[in-house]
Write a structure and sequence with these properties.
The chain is α/β, with parallel strands linked by helices. It folds into 2 domains: 180 residues, Glucose-6-phosphate isomerase like protein, domain 1 (Rossmann fold), CATH 3.40.50.10490; 120 residues, Roll (CBS-domain). 46% of the residues lie in helices and 15% in strands. The strands form 3 sheets. The chain has a 5-stranded parallel sheet with strand order 2-1-3-4-5, sandwiched between helices. The chain has a 4-stranded mixed sheet with strand order 6-7-8-9. The protein has a 3-stranded mixed sheet with strand order 10-11-12. Helix 1 packs across helix 7 and helix 3 packs parallel to helix 7. The longest helix is centred in the N-terminal third of the chain and has 32 residues.
């Protein structure tokens, strides 16, 4: 396909037009979000209270671009600990109303609040006393008049040159949906561990894996400080961790012996020596609740392949496990 080259002088004018259009979108969005921030009131908290009180899910619905934003809001709620599902209003009128129960709450989006396709969902909510949260810009619209809780969006100009294509309005809906999700997370004290449980296959979930999730705790290679080196070598070859933990008389960590320690200490009298003479004292250790990516960074920085795991609050420093770099790599950490 042949594309004619735009003259340099024309290219500059086109670029200026493009940047002007982009900045108009940003400016409209910024001003509208500022207006929204100043407009939210007790109804927002009532919406949060309503969602927290239900035993079921948040059923989100909307038509067209509002529906697309609704899908994202439902996904965000579900991924942050608030069970949610999107239902298309057209499909709802043809059987999917059966997915809505008295234990649920409805969150319905329509910028002008007069979307005809939402009428069956509104009627169903009223008939079966399903809490209805409406999100629209017209307080006198059919949606907000019917809603138990009205989330009013400021009227703002669309950034479209014709003032028609949903741009600013959908940004406002998206931001308000995110605000609901974050407020619910904070009310529930939704933790990073809970977030990881809902994102086991994603990179964010992997970043939240903790040392205690990956460390080896069974059949740890343990020897005392007075263990002979022949016995140390036997213990070292039993496992696949590439190290032996040397413990003191109280069972706490006295040191560690790795293949590197053995190589550095090879001498004619090597086999007559004791573990306490060969070990590396005060080895670096990880905490069980530490993020595994942090522990991996420690290993990479020190060019080692394993870290002991101890509880920093344990004065005896008894070993809880060993984190090996291979376990981190198998978990997808880099």
């Amino acid at each position: 396909m042949h594309v004619e080259k735009v003259p340099d002088n024309m290219q500059g004018r086109l670029q200026n037009c493009d940047l002007t259009a982009a900045r108009r979108v940003f400016d409209y969005a910024r001003d509208a979000i500022g207006a929204l921030s100043g407009a939210i009131d007790g109804d927002f908290s009532r919406a949060v209270d309503t969602i927290l009180a239900i035993r079921g899910r948040v059923i989100v619905s909307g038509m067209g671009k509002s529906g697309l934003i609704g899908r994202k809001i439902a996904a965000t709620l579900a991924s942050t600990g608030t069970p949610a599902q999107f239902i298309h209003p057209g499909e709802a009128s043809h059987g999917d109303l059966g997915a809505v129960t008295r234990q649920d709450a409805l969150l319905m989006l329509s910028y002008r609040g007069e979307t005809a396709e939402l009428s069956d969902l509104i009627t169903y909510a009223k008939r079966f006393s399903v809490p209805l949260i409406g999100m629209a810009s017209n307080p006198d619209s059919a949606l907000l008049r019917a809603a138990d809780i009205a989330l009013l969006i400021p009227k703002a100009p669309e950034a479209c040159p014709n003032g028609l294509a949903p741009t600013t309005s959908t940004t406002l809906m998206l931001v308000l949906g995110d605000a609901l999700a974050v407020a619910l997370m904070e009310r529930k004290s939704f933790s990073a561990d809970q977030y990881r449980n809902l994102h086991p296959g994603g990179s964010l979930g992997r970043m939240l894996i903790r040392v205690c999730d990956l460390m080896r705790t069974k059949d740890l290679p343990l020897v005392g400080e007075n263990t002979s080196m022949p016995d140390v070598l036997i213990e070292l070859q039993k496992g696949t961790l590439g190290c032996v933990i040397v413990t003191d008389s109280n069972g706490g960590v006295a040191g560690i012996i790795t293949h590197g320690d053995i190589g550095r200490n090879i001498a004619p009298d090597f086999l007559s020596r004791r573990a306490g003479e060969v070990m590396t004292r005060e080895p670096k250790a990880a905490r069980p609740e530490q993020l595994a990516v942090e522990a991996l960074a420690q290993m990479n920085e020190r060019q080692i392949t394993q870290l002991l795991v101890v509880d920093p609050s344990d004065a005896a420093r008894k070993p809880l496990g060993i984190l090996h770099i291979h376990e981190c790599l198998r978990a997808g950490l880099q």
